[in-house]
Design brief:
There is one protein chain. The protein has 125 residues and is mainly β. Strands 2, 4, 5, 6, 9, 10 and 11 form a 7-stranded mixed β-sheet that branches. Strand 5 and strand 6 form a beta hairpin. The radius of gyration is 13 Å and the shape is globular. The mean pLDDT is 95.
């Protein structure tokens, strides 16, 4: 089992920055992928970014490309999401997830097995 805990959410002004953390515990694997997803009120869960525990593979959603950066610290079993130039549309509950999606399904929520509890991010315009 893999246990994921998100932290770092909160209230930020438009144009500001936040860094989210996803701490993993339990049985983790170097081949596993960690993804960030978000869900705004009244909307479905949206892919944000994903990274593998090993190697250099990572992807970003077009909506956050150039603003958000996903990274990892393997020694701490932690994945980060650095969010810059935030706007109101970034307001959502942010979740991290882990699993073994293939390269095509890395952006699909259903391809991930383990999920954190979510952390609220609110951007004030």
């Amino acid at each position: 089992q893999v246990h994921l805990v998100e932290s770092g959410g909160g209230l930020v002004q438009a144009g500001g920055s936040l860094r989210l953390s996803c701490a993993a515990s339990g049985r983790t694997f170097s081949s596993q992928t960690v993804g960030w997803f978000r869900q705004a009120p009244g909307k479905g869960r949206e892919f944000v970014a994903a990274i593998r525990w090993s190697g250099t593979s990572k992807i970003n959603a077009d909506s956050v490309k150039g603003r958000f950066t996903i990274s990892r610290d393997n020694a701490k079993n932690t994945v980060y999401l650095q969010m810059n130039s935030m706007n109101f549309d970034d307001t959502a509950v942010y979740y991290c997830a882990a699993g073994f999606p293939d390269s095509v399904r890395m952006v699909v929520p259903g391809a991930y097995t383990y999920w954190g509890q979510g952390t609220q991010v609110t951007v004030a315009s």
